[in-house]
Fold:
Amino acid sequence: RFLASMSHELRTPLNAILGFSEVMSNEVLGPMSNPTYRDYAHDVHESGQHLLDLINEILDLSRIEAGRYQLNEEPVMLLNIVEDCCHMMELRARNKDIRVVQDFEHQLPRLFADERAVRQITLNLLSNAIKFTATGGEIRVRVGWTAGGGQYMSIKDNGPGIPEDEIPVVLSAFGQGSIAIKSAEQGTGLGLPIVQGLLAMHGGEFELHSKLREGTEAIAIFPLSRV
Structure:
């Protein structure tokens, strides 16, 4: 209840900050005489968006850990959701000249799952892959059957990879590996814990495999009971 109240109190002024800074950076009311002011407004908007994302992720993780995250379960097509998320992230990938290769098994039946949660899992993993893949790199997205009759989604990049001893760190709340700390695009450190929590609520599993200088593969697995 406290977190829900605080998130509301924080979101209200943030919406004003985001709205007005966007108006200023886009010069909606007329050009600014000094372009530096426009750049500052853009920086304010970017920082405000980062803070809003952090608030939303803290609230989601706290609900998951407290058992108060309510799943709205219905038949959903995993392949369609992943395809849609790839399209949503297309511009971010293109800005870094990253090639996103889709390798989907077709004729997959529907999953009984929460569509918002599945979408959040996919976007978190895609965002991470794009963030840590170098310009001109490649990301391979696969959807298919598991050996046990469930369904999986795999997102594999050819980025810098994660040292083996740091994998438990990046899977913990607010955990940042050494690569992330050096990166210009640091995240909140909550994306992977949220992915793990949402998959656990579906009875699923999350696997993270990585090798230095070769890349990282994140796998979200939904069990047979969900098919």
In short: The radius of gyration is 19 Å. The longest helix spans residues 35-65. The mean pLDDT is 88. DSSP finds eight helices and seven strands in the chain.
